[in-house]
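Standup notes, protein team

Yesterday: finished cleaning the Alexandrium catenella set.
Today: Suppressor of forked domain-containing protein structure.
Blockers: none.

Input for Suppressor of forked domain-containing protein:
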Amino acid sequence: NIDHFHVAVPLRPKNAAQQGRILERWRAVLHCERTNPLRLGRPELHVRVSLVYQQAALSCAFHAEIWHDFSSWLDLVEHKDEATSCLRRAVERFLPQDLAL
């Protein structure tokens, strides 16, 4: 069950467990959407999955994993410029100290 009104907060030891659960829930939704259960055409699937990643980022913006996964997916579907922009946005807005991104 996902709380669609949960707002991303910086990760701290105090909230790490809760934030981890939120991330895992979104990752499960994303995994499902990427399997295309609605049997959408390619363009529609790309739009749908991108929107779900954007929704997940609203709750998980301070998790490097969500941005890395989103960028990797964009790269996989040959949206190279968007993949680069995704990582740039993550670093500039949410994770400036994250060396992994």
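Follow-up from PR in the comments: The chain has a mean pLDDT of 94.
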